[in-house]
Amino acid sequence: MKPDLKQIQVPIENEMAQFELKFRDSMKSKVKLLDHITNYIVKRKGKQMRPMFVFLTAGVCGGINDATHRGAALIELLHTATLVHDDVVDDANYRRGFFSVNALWKNKIAVLVGDYLLSRGLLLSVENGDFDLLKIVSNAVKEMSEGELLQIAKARKLDITEEVYYDIIRQKTASLLASCCAVGASSTQSDEKTIAKMREFGEKVGMAFQIKDDLFDFGDDEIGKPVGIDIKEKKMTLPLIFALQKADWLEKKKIIHLIRNRSEDKKAVNQVISFVKKSGGLDYAKTIMDRYFIEALDILKTFPESAYKTSLEGLVSYTIERKK
Amino acid sequence: MKPDLKQIQVPIENEMAQFELKFRDSMKSKVKLLDHITNYIVKRKGKQMRPMFVFLTAGVCGGINDATHRGAALIELLHTATLVHDDVVDDANYRRGFFSVNALWKNKIAVLVGDYLLSRGLLLSVENGDFDLLKIVSNAVKEMSEGELLQIAKARKLDITEEVYYDIIRQKTASLLASCCAVGASSTQSDEKTIAKMREFGEKVGMAFQIKDDLFDFGDDEIGKPVGIDIKEKKMTLPLIFALQKADWLEKKKIIHLIRNRSEDKKAVNQVISFVKKSGGLDYAKTIMDRYFIEALDILKTFPESAYKTSLEGLVSYTIERKK
C-alpha cells in the first residue's frame, strides 16, 4: 500500500472528525489569554499521527469506543504540552511553519500553557476513571523527560555508543508511540499480553520514526528539512556514530576536530556529512530502521485482517517513507 | 499557641522523617544528570509546610496511613515541579538562598526536570490506585497554571478589581493548599462533606497566606523580603488596589503615572508605598487576611480536639505571623 494519509484515514474518518471537536473542547478555559493561545495551537495542528495510531490500534484490537476517544485526546494533549515545552527547551521560534508559543508569548507563558494542557489531559482521564490509560501515559511523560535529559547529558559526547543512542531515542521518541498503541489496545479492554504486544509494535515504529528523522539531517532526501542542524549542535546520531566507529584513527581525529571546533562553519559541516555518506553511515542507519520497520509489521501480522490493520500498516510505511 | 514550626511538628515527627526518605526516593532516576539535580533540589528544601498540612489534616480526620504518605509525596513532587517551572517563568536566579535550577542548568533542563518530577508524582499515585488523590491534585495543576496565566493577563492592568485579585490568588496559591487539606482528608477515607470542609479550610488558609506574602512587598515587617518588587513589575496586589479605589481622581492619576512610567525608579516606588500606607491599604489587606484566618479556624473548630488539631491551628497561625 502506497502511504497516503488521506487513504489511511478512511476507516477512522468519523473518529478523526469527532476527535477534532473533542480536542478543541478539552482545552477551553475561562481565562481569555489561554483560550487565545489554545486556539492558535489548534490552528497550526500537525498531521495528528498519534491519535491515528490510537484509533487504528483500537480498531485492530476489537473496536473503537468512548475510552479510545478519551485516550486519543489525552495523548494529543500530552503531545501538544511537550511540543510547547520542547520549543522552550530548544529556544525554537517556529513550529509547523507558525511562530512557536514561546516566540509569540515568551517562555514563561509557554511553560504555563504546557502545564495547563497536561492537567487537562489528566483531568479528562481521572474524571472518567480511565486509570489504565493514565498509567500508560504517566509512564510516557517520565520516559520522555528522562530521555531528553539523557540526550542533553550524553548526545554531545563525541564517543557516544550506539547503545546509548538507542536508549535515548527509545525514551524520548519511541515511548510516546508505544503509549499510543498501548492506549488504543487498553481502551478496548484487551488482555495484558495484547496490550504488551501493541506497546512493542509502537515502540518499534517509534524507533524507526526517529532514525528516519535523524537521517533527514544528512540531507537524505530531495526536499527534506534543513541539513546539518544536529551536527552544528554537536548532537550525535546513528549515521555519524556508525561512521566514527568504522573510521581509522587519523580520520576519526580529523572529524572530531571538525565537530568540536568548527561546527558553526557550513563547509566543515558539509565535510562531516560527506564523511558519513562515504563511510556508509546512511546505509547502516537505513538498515537498522528497516529492521525495526519489519519487526513492527511482523507483530502486526499476528492480528486478524481488517480495514484498520491495512491502514495501520500504511501508517507505519508512512512514518518511514515520509518526505518531512 | 505561639507558632513555632518545631513545636507544631511534634505529633507528626516520625511521619515527617519518613516523608523525607520517601520524597528523596521518589525522585531517583537512572539518568545521572537528573539524580544530580534532584539531589540538589532536596538539599535546598523549604519548610515543607505542604506535607505538614497533608499529615495534620489526615490526623484530624481520623489517622495517618500509607495513602497519606503517598499523598504528601505527590503534593511535594508537584509543588517542587511548579517551583522549578516558576523560576523559568519568573527568570529567577535564586530559590531559598540557593541558585535556581534554571540558573545552574539553563531553562531547557529546568522545564524537563519539572515535567519529570510531575510524572513521578503521577506514577506514585497511579501505581497505588490513589485515584481520588490524583483527581484532587490534577485539578490543582489546572488551577495553578490558569491562575498564573490570569495573573499575567490581568495583574498588570492598573484598573484591576479586588474580585479579579481574589480570583488570581485563589487559583494560583490557595488551590494548592486546598488540595493539601483535601488530600489529607481523602486519604483517611473521610466522606465527601468532610473532604469538602477540609478543602475550604485549606483554601482560606491559602488566601490568607498569599495576602500575607503580598503585604511583605510593602515592607510590612522589620526583617521581611526585599520591598517594592511587585510595584516595580507593575503587579497589582490588594493593598495597592484598595488604595487606588479610595483615592481621589488627581491622586489616582499621579500614582498610576508613577507605576506606569517610573516603576524602575526606587524613589517613585517608595512614593507609591507611602501612598498605600497613608491610604490604609495595608490595614485593609490585614483585615481581609484576618477574616480568612478566622474563617479557617472556625471550620477547624467543627473537628474533634486532638494534638493534630492543636498543631494545625498553630500551623495556620504560622502562615500569617511568619516573618518571611
TrEMBL record, chains A, B:
Listed cofactors: Mg(2+)
Gene Ontology molecular function, alphabetical: metal ion binding; prenyltransferase activity
Recorded superkingdom: Bacteria
Coiled coil: none
SUPFAM superfamilies according to UniProt: Terpenoid synthases
Pfam families noted in UniProt: polyprenyl_synt (PF00348)
GO BP, sorted A to Z: isoprenoid biosynthetic process
InterPro entries tied to this protein: Isoprenoid_synthase_dom_sf (IPR008949), Polyprenyl_synt (IPR000092), Polyprenyl_synt_CS (IPR033749)
Keywords: Magnesium, Metal-binding, Transferase
PANTHER family the UniProt entry points to: ALL TRANS-POLYPRENYL-DIPHOSPHATE SYNTHASE PDSS1, GERANYLGERANYL PYROPHOSPHATE SYNTHASE
Family of the protein in this entry: Belongs to the FPP/GGPP synthase family.
Protein name: Octaprenyl-diphosphate synthase
Organism: Algoriphagus chordae
